[in-house]
Specification:
By secondary structure, this protein is an alpha+beta fold. It contains 14 helices and 19 strands. It has two domains: 130 residues, Nucleic acid-binding proteins (OB fold (Dihydrolipoamide Acetyltransferase, E2P)); 320 residues, 2-Layer Sandwich (BirA Bifunctional Protein, domain 2), CATH 3.30.930.10. The strands form four sheets. Strands 6, 10, 11, 14, 15, 16, 17, 18 and 19 form a nine-stranded mixed beta sheet that branches. Strands 1-2-3-5-4 form a five-stranded mixed β-barrel.
Length: 485
């Protein structure tokens, strides 16, 4: 097997010979009349016009005075037929081509005796000389580390990976279309925040030199989007990158994509109905079905989804009734008595999350709403009128993982102020780094009056995992976070 250095040397020699012939191996432009998919469709309709195609060489078969080369663009692959008697002296230039080169070819389409639609070349040109060889002779790139670090090779080598990211793109496009058609407007809010807020998370910190001020990459878009509800934009949403300084796992990446939407004069029941309708609609549009295979299970996104209170789910999973434990010490001791290790923190949010992740979440394969969380765990959600210990909040699960979180939004500025103060107390008392911070500017906005509002956060990456049967979030993010070599 040729060494990498030898391959590069051979290709550099070819590049030198091309330039010696006064040919630019990296021209500025090329007029492509069709994609390969469009050209094949044109031929199948009985139209046989001359076409100009372009793509990367993926296979080459030299047979003396005739050569077959496969080229691929983003729409697919096509075979190209080169004949020396049609191309004259230029035919010899094919010797300078390598697997991985990008070329442009003009000619007419025909079918070979094996019924393969093929482009008969009347002219061709080099568009980009590849100096590196493609991985594993086109048998596919399987080295996971290399696939993530050099995603371009993954996309070149693995058709299923290209299709996965097309599904991702179409999923986001149809979510936008669904919301746009229902009167929502898409907005953009700051990525750099003076105080992190809107979620339980440890933030990334940076420094703005001109302002001489520390800023934080956003951990949520919530508090800015709700300011827009105050301002009279009754239906808003944002799809954007969120940054959380947390561990990396098959379900977590430090930066990920989140949809957040807020609708005035709605509550969490309205949001539940919208979410199950939206995801089933998007699945049908993107996949042609509401049923997907994931980790050996068939998940059906068609409404209605199962609804169960958080209290019932935890009691059923481990026997603990969190409402019977009047302080964090009691709840932590009850969890440890079940043999579950916990951190020393007594944060109510952490302890509740521990119960859910251990005893409830893994069993929620079919789409399920967990309803009504303890008020201590949800500082931005409105209390339930019939039980002030709980808030109107749901988390949505499918495939054994959380995919969405939603509230009836708290719009009482005095209560919100007290909730923030309690969170700051827990940060100090329990060392809870992920507790909400006091947000004076947000309180000021609420004091101008925010209507009843239903808010939603949907994890795009995890939804795409479910749609494409991928068990790792890294598979659905083009450039996942990796440790520097």
């Amino acid at each position: 097997m040729a060494r990498i250095d030898d391959i590069i040397h051979q290709r550099l020699e070819k590049l030198h010979r091309i330039r010696q012939q006064d040919i630019d191996p990296y021209p500025h432009r090329y007029h492509r009349s069709h994609t390969t998919k469009e050209a094949i469709a044109l031929f199948e309709r009985g139209e046989n016009a001359q076409v100009s195609l372009a793509g990367r060489i993926t296979a080459s078969r030299l047979m003396g005075k005739a050569t077959f080369i496969d080229i691929r663009d983003s729409s697919g692959k096509i075979q190209v037929y080169f004949r020396s008697d049609h191309l004259g002296e230029k035919y010899e230039f094919l010797r300078e081509f390598d697997i991985g080169d990008i070329i442009g070819v003009s000619g007419n389409l025909f079918k070979t005796h094996t019924e393969e639609i093929t482009l008969g070349a009347t002219d061709f040109t080099m568009l980009s000389k590849s100096l590196q060889s493609l991985p594993e002779k086109w048998h596919g790139l399987v080295d996971v580390e290399k696939r993530y670090r050099q995603r371009y090779l993954d996309l070149i080598s693995n058709e299923e990976v290209r299709q996965l990211f097309l599904v991702r793109s179409r999923t986001i496009a149809h979510i936008r279309r669904y919301l746009d058609e229902r009167g929502f407007i898409e907005v953009e809010t700051p990525v750099l925040h003076p105080i992190p807020g809107g979620a339980r998370a440890r933030p990334f910190i940076t420094h703005h030199h001109a302002l001489d001020q520390d800023l934080y990459l956003r951990i949520a878009t919530e508090l800015y989007l709700k300011r827009l509800i105050v301002g009279g934009l009754d239906k808003v949403y944002e799809i954007g990158r969120i940054f959380r300084n947390e561990g990396i796992s098959i379900k977590h990446n430090p930066e990920f994509t989140m949809l957040e939407s807020y609708e005035a004069y709605a509550d969490y029941n309205d949001v539940m109905k919208m979410l199950e309708e939206m995801i089933s609609h998007v699945a049908q549009e993107v996949l042609g079905t509401t049923k997907v295979s994931f980790a050996g299970d068939t998940i059906d996104f068609s409404p209605p989804w199962q609804r169960i209170t958080l209290r019932e789910a935890i009691k059923e999973g481990c026997g603990i009734d969190f409402l019977e434990h009047t302080n964090a010490y009691s709840l932590r001791d009850a969890i440890r008595q079940l043999g579950i290790e916990t951190e020393e923190t007594l944060s109510p949010a952490y302890l509740t999350d521990k119960l859910v992740s251990t005893f409830v979440e893994p069993g929620l394969i079919q789409p399920t709403f967990l309803l009504d969380y303890p008020v201590e765990t949800s500082p931005l959600a409105k209390r339930k009128p019939e039980d002030k210990r709980l808030v109107e909040r749901f988390e949505a699960f499918a495939g054994g993982m959380e995919i969405a979180n939603a509230f009836t939004e708290l719009n009482d500025p005095e209560e919100q102020k007290n909730r923030f103060i309690s969170q700051e107390d827990w940060r100090t008392k329990f060392g809870d780094e992920e507790a909400e911070r006091y947000q004076a500017d947000f309180i000021l906005a609420l004091e101008h009056g925010m209507p009843p509002t239903g808010g939603l956060g949907l994890g795009i990456d995890r939804l795409v995992m479910l749609f494409t049967n991928q068990q790792s979030i890294r598979e659905v993010i083009l450039f996942p976070q990796l440790r520097t070599k």
